[in-house]
């Protein structure tokens, strides 16, 4: 089931693509940086940025023109010597938290970090309860 | 007329679901040892209901096969020019059709259970069928009241709207039905769990009845997810194979719960331990199936993902979800105290390892659930956040890494109680492999942490998976043990593929003029020509790429950029060159103004192992089912033979004085 739903998404972004065929994509939308190290940096960053026109795809996985423009921005800025985190910050300032797949702790996202800690505590609790007390209940008194 | 018969069959099936529910519930009121007059209808009702629901689905399938454009669903989702196979698969490539498939599988599994399961006490069976009928009824109501697949158009359409081109792929034939069968197979596990809980029959006999259903559903989920992942990989044109998309997570969550349930039910069957745990996981697994259905079907995921955006459907499924999950957990809370805990065991025992990993699986499930639902929750308050791979990967790994380590050791431990010192050698070997492989790989270059850990764990797990066979006569190892070995080895294979893809993939994006060559890894890729071609319902630009490995003979790849006209959409058809040690993945993009073509090429070492691993895991499950069924059949025939012999002895007057042999139970 997942796939054909997912597929629909691409379909939706393919339509604007057709409409914008006349406009050539920005230089770095479909071209890599010559420097392998910088390209690797850019690629890693692009994997974690959301294509705003798509459903659940990073800009590194999308044919949408906007994803192409964003790829161009990322590569151009990396080439100009900006750090990946500065570029992420710049994009978040423009498009909001939504553009980054890497949630940062903030007033709106803290439960994403608090709940896993809670899960760890619960897991530890359950394991201790189920497995920890075995030595002293050979009598088989409790669970 | 055909469509009306289909609709009538659905209504009748819904009515029979009511009968099944009432009759099943009546069996609970019967005094022990005697049958309630009403109770005899539950089994036939389930069987006939299964027949009717499947009939309704087949009739819809026929409507799509002949492109009956007087039916609204066909007109909006099909097209007379579409290739025949995609006409058929298009039946479930839409909301109503896929819900009908869902309900059809639900009814069919209920029918199979009612027809063939004779081992359970009648009361438990009655309660189980009542629950199954209750669940089915809700989904019949959903289908009939808000998603009628057989709705007619006032005037038949001249031509259909066509099916989304991305769905026009053999993947649609395999992936959704497999996944649905897995989702819904868990409904039987759910009903059995509730039935056993209500009649206080949570015991190994019940677990043996439940086990093949859980295993079967789990195998189907495994294969469905594997197929879906590969489909995404080659169809979307960017080489990604898992996106942590909510729709993908919706299939992963039931799989995680089913994996835990499968292990738990095996412990219950073999050792009479983990009783409440099994029931809870049974409820959880089907809850996740329903949650998945809700996420995908309700339109709660951002608009494009919704097949139907109207909130009526969403609210309907949400109400069903609340009713079933809420009801199940209420009964669980009321009754769990009455279920004795079962046999005890030490922390260092096979049960201990299984409990540890079930907790880890549940924790991963919690993380996936949180990451999937949290953005939906904040969106309701107009705060949009994205949760993606940078969150899921490390958060999941916190629990997955200990789980994989314990998974390596667990099968080597003895039941009930064991001393770690006994398996000292194996422990040392596993630790040495993890550390050795990580050290070796880091020596050759800088790689991200998680793929690196994945490589180490994959190596250790691959070896640990076959260690349980050490010192055993291979021909005498039971089939179900082989199943475990193969499935665990499959996990290692899959993990190895994922880690290699993450650590060693190479990417080449370039604008190439015809005749130009690009180098990637050991491969020289030459763009020989780009030619227009036409298919049944599309036209395309097809690139002819000559791929030479280390200057050898060329192999030709032909990626296409397709344009469909109904509906008007473009897709990238990737071309794959599969080697034993990886895949070369090529895509053609647009033509630039200077006449050069955009080419994207990836070399993904061992990426295919991800799906080979998935297939091995599924195969392991199939072996386990075959092994269990074999043992069951043997036991059944032994019981029959014993009874026969006793009858014979009795017929002879029992004069010999030989005690009749007892059947092995």
List the helices and strands and how they pair.
The complex is a heterodimer of chains A (143) and B (665).
Chain A: H1 2-19, H2 36-47, H3 65-79, H4 84-95, H5 110-131
Helix pairs in contact in A: 2-3
Chain B: H1 2-29, H2 42-65, H3 72-77, H4 84-89, H5 95-116, H6 122-146, H7 170-198, H8 204-235, H9 246-271, H10 275-297, H11 311-335, H12 350-380, H13 389-409, H14 424-444, H15 449-466, H16 479-504, E1 506-512, E2 517-520, E3 523-534, E4 538-549, E5 555-557, E6 560-565, E7 568-573, E8 575-579, E9 582-591, E10 597-605, H17 609-651
Antiparallel strand pairs in B: 1-10, 2-3, 3-4, 4-5, 4-6, 6-7, 8-9, 9-10
Helix pairs in contact in B: 1-2, 1-6, 2-5, 5-6, 5-7, 6-7, 6-11, 7-8, 7-10, 8-9, 8-17, 9-10, 9-12, 10-11, 12-13, 13-15, 14-15, 15-16, 16-17
What does this molecule look like?
- The complex is a heterodimer of chains A (143) and B (665).
- By secondary structure, chain A is an all-alpha fold.
- Chain A folds into 2 domains: 24-104, Cytochrome C biogenesis protein (Helicase, Ruva Protein, domain 3, Orthogonal Bundle); 105-143.
- Chain A is 55% helix and 0% strand.
- Chain A contains 5 helices and no strands.
- Chain A has helices at residues 2-19, 36-47, 65-79, 84-95, 110-131.
- The longest helix of chain A is centred in the last third of the chain and has 22 residues, at 110-131.
- Chain A is elongated.
- Chain A starts with a helix and ends in a 12-residue tail after the last helix.
- Chain B has helices spanning 2-29, 42-65, 72-77, 84-89, 95-116, 122-146, 170-198, 204-235, 246-271, 275-297, 311-335, 350-380, 389-409, 424-444, 449-466, 479-504, 609-651; strands at 506-512, 517-520, 523-534, 538-549, 555-557, 560-565, 568-573, 575-579, 582-591, 597-605.
- The two termini of chain B are 54 Å apart.
- The longest helix of chain B has 43 residues, at 609-651.
- Among the domains of chain B are: 1-163, no CATH class; 506-605.
- In chain B, α9 (246-271) packs antiparallel against α12.
- Chain B is built from 17 helices and 10 strands.
- With 665 residues, chain B is an alpha+beta fold.
- The chains are: A mainly alpha (143), B alpha+beta (665).
- Chains A and B meet through α1 and α5 of A and α7, α8, α9, α12 and α13 of B.
């Amino acid at each position: 089931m997942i796939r054909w739903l997912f597929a629909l998404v691409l379909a939706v972004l393919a339509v604007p693509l057709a409409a914008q065929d006349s406009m050539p994509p920005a230089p770095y939308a479909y071209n890599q940086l010559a420097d392998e190290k910088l390209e690797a940096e850019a690629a890693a960053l692009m994997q974690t940025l959301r294509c705003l026109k798509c459903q659940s795809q990073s800009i590194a996985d999308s044919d949408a023109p906007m994803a192409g423009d964003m790829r161009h921005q990322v590569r151009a800025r990396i080439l100009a010597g900006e750090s990946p985190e500065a570029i992420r910050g710049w994009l978040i300032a423009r498009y909001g938290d939504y553009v980054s797949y890497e949630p940062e702790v903030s007033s709106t996202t803290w439960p994403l970090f608090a709940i896993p800690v809670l899960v760890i505590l619960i897991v530890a609790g359950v394991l201790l309860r189920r497995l920890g007390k075995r030595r002293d209940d050979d009598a088989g008194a409790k669970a | 007329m055909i469509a009306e018969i289909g609709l009538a069959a659905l209504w009748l099936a819904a009515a029979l679901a009511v009968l099944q529910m009432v009759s099943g519930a009546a069996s609970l009121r019967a005094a022990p040892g005697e049958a309630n007059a009403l109770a005899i209808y539950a089994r036939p009702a389930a069987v006939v209901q299964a027949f009717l629901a499947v009939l309704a689905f087949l009739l819809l399938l026929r409507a799509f096969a002949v492109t009956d454009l007087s039916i609204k669903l066909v007109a909006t989702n099909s097209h007379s020019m579409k290739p025949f196979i995609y006409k058929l698969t298009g039946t479930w490539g839409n909301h109503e059709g896929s819900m009908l498939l869902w309900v059809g599988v639900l009814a069919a599994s209920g029918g199979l259970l009612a027809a063939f399961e004779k081992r359970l006490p009648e009361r438990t069976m009655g309660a189980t069928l009542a629950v199954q009928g209750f669940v089915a009824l809700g989904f019949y109501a959903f289908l009939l009241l808000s998603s009628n697949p057989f709705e007619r158009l006032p005037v038949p359409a001249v031509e259909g709207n066509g099916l989304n081109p991305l769905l026009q792929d053999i993947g649609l034939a395999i992936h959704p039905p497999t996944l649905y069968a897995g989702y819904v197979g868990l409904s039987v596990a759910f009903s059995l769990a509730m039935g056993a809980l209500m009649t206080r029959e949570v015991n190994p006999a019940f677990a043996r009845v439940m086990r093949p259903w859980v295993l079967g559903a789990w195998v189907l989920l495994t294969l469905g997810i594997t197929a879906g992942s590969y489909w995404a990989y080659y169809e979307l044109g960017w080489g990604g194979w898992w996106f942590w998309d909510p729709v993908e997570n919706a299939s992963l969550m039931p799989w995680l719960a089913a994996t835990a349930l499968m292990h738990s039910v095996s412990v219950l069957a073999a050792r009479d331990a983990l009783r409440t745990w099994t029931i809870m996981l049974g409820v959880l697994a089907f809850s996740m199936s329903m949650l998945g259905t809700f996420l995908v079907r309700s339109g709660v995921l951002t608009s494009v993902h919704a097949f139907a955006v109207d909130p009526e459907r969403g609210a309907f499924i949400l109400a069903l979800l609340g009713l079933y999950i809420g009801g199940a957990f209420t009964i669980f809370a009321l009754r769990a105290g009455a279920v004795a805990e079962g046999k005890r065991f030490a922390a260092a025992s096979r049960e201990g390892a299984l409990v540890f990993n079930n907790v880890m699986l549940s924790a991963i499930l919690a993380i996936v659930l949180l990451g999937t639902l949290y953005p939906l929750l904040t969106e309701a308050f107009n705060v949009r956040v994205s949760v993606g791979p940078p969150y899921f990967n490390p958060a999941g790994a916190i629990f997955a890494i200990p789980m994989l380590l314990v998974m390596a050791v667990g099968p080597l431990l003895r039941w009930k109680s064991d001393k770690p010192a006994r398996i000292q050698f194996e422990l040392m070997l596993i630790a040495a492999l993890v550390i050795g492989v990580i050290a070796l790989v880091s020596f050759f270059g800088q790689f991200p942490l998680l793929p690196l850990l994945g490589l180490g764990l994959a190596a250790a797990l691959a070896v640990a998976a076959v260690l349980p066979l050490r010192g055993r006569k291979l021909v005498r190892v039971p089939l179900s043990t082989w199943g475990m070995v193969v499935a665990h080895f499959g996990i290692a294979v899959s993990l190895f593929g994922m880690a290699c893809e993450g650590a060693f993939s190479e990417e080449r994006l370039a604008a190439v003029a015809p005749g130009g060559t690009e180098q990637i890894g050991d491969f020289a890729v030459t763009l020989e020509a780009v030619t227009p071609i036409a298919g049944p319902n599309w036209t395309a630009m097809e690139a002819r790429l000559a791929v030479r490995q280390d200057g050898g003979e060329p192999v030709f790849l032909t990626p296409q950029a397709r344009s469909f006209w109904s509906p008007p959409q473009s897709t990238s058809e990737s071309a794959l060159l599969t080697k034993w040690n990886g895949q070369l993945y090529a895509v053609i993009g647009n033509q630039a103004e200077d006449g050069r073509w955009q080419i994207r090429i990836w070399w993904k070492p061992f990426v295919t192992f991800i799906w080979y691993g998935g297939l091995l895991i599924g195969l392991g499950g199939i072996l386990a089912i075959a092994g269990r069924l074999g043992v069951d059949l043997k036991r059944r025939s032994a019981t029959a033979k014993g009874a026969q012999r006793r009858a014979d002895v009795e017929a002879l007057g029992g004069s010999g004085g030989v005690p009749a042999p007892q059947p092995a139970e």
